[in-house]
Write a structure and sequence with these properties.
The chain is an alpha/beta fold. It contains eleven helices and ten strands.
């Protein structure tokens, strides 16, 4: 391991409560390529290197192994619990009555924690797929988004927070129409929202919407997720690190274009959560956001990298009469239509 990074040097982002948290985290989804032992070993090494934000999820199938790493890091006083920001998510097959609560109880047992810092609804519907499935897989029980069903799960999230099992609650993979349909009905508003975000898919409208609402954005696939599962790859997908806008800026700074993606995300005001099991990658990821920031001109240049290229299309979650993956993202719905979503 190279010289560790002082966590105090990592930029912080301020939540709507005034709390400041790390502006970069480490993802833990092995992308169907890396097993729990590899991922958890990387988490342990990352803690020692200086990472303090870790993004977990029950569906990743590795929380029990990661929990052993957290327990050991706390036992040896490598880090204090209050220095960590740990998130997890309820999977789609656990949205029913009492199931969200059961899900976080298992997550806390697996992670060996008394609480998580933030807990998310992973996807806004109860549709799920078999682990490791291909892109053509479909579950005949899948259904379109329903605000009523979502709110039944969200009310359990509110209970989770009130019981102190999660300090914050959040949403993920939402759209503006969906948010417009549910936010007025939330007793507790989400503090954070996870969404796909990288230079070729900036989601500026959704980003601005969240900023206006005081919701902090966590961006997944921050470098374009080259190791994402095969089911999430499609002809015509853009490779962010090959874009001329990123390559030229990377050359100017003497860094890989992937690190340009991370600098851009942090300076934009979001929290990227890159994943790697390779020390040279996750070490350089963290170091990149602590030094040599992009200029205002370079940030402006990166606006031109937008290609509107969604990588995680989610087609495995489609219901039987859906027209295509676009239906998941309300691409044909206007704000007026969203009010009809029940």
């Amino acid at each position: 391991m190279k010289d560790s990074i002082d966590p105090g040097l990592v930029p912080r982002i301020t939540l709507n409560t005034g709390e400041k948290i790390p502006s970069i985290g480490m993802g833990t989804f092995g992308s169907d390529r890396y097993g729990p032992d590899e991922v958890s070993a990387a988490v342990g090494d990352a803690i020692r290197f200086g990472y303090r934000f870790f993004d977990c999820a029950s569906v990743y199938g590795n929380e029990d192994k990661i929990g052993m790493v957290f327990e050991e890091a706390l036992r040896t006083e490598t880090v204090k619990r209050e220095e960590l920001f740990i998130t997890s998510k309820v999977w789609n097959d656990m949205h029913g009555h009492g199931e969200v609560l059961a899900s976080i109880e298992k997550t806390l047992k697996d992670l060996r924690l008394a609480y998580v810092d933030a807990y998310f609804i992973h996807w806004p519907f109860p549709n799920y797929h078999a682990p490791g499935c291909d892109g053509d897989s479909r579950n005949p029980d899948s259904v379109p988004f329903s605000a009523e069903r979502f709110m039944a799960a969200w009310e359990q999230m509110e209970t989770i927070q009130s019981r102190g099992l999660a300090r914050y609650i959040g949403m993920s993979n939402m759209t503006i129409p969906k948010l417009d349909a549910v936010l007025p009905r939330c007793r507790v508003k989400p503090t954070l929202l996870e969404m796909e975000q990288h230079p070729s898919f900036q989601q500026q409208e959704l980003f601005d919407y969240c900023t206006k609402k005081g919701i902090t954005v966590i961006g997944y696939c921050p470098i374009g997720s080259p190791n994402r599962p095969e089911r999430d790859k499609a002809p015509g997908d853009v490779v962010d690190t090959a874009l001329p806008e990123l390559r030229s800026i990377g050359w100017a700074h003497g860094i890989h274009p992937a690190l340009v993606c991370l600098k851009w995300a942090v300076q934009r005001g979001s929290i990227p959560i890159p994943f790697s099991v390779h020390a040279k990658n996750y070490e350089s990821n963290l170091r990149a956001v602590t030094e040599d920031p992009l200029s205002a001109a370079e940030m402006e240049q990166l606006k031109k990298a937008e290609r509107n290229c969604r990588l995680v299309k989610g087609q495995v979650f489609l219901w039987p009469d859906a027209k295509g993956w676009e239906d998941l993202w309300d691409l044909e719905k206007s704000p007026m239509d969203c009010k009809k979503i029940v």
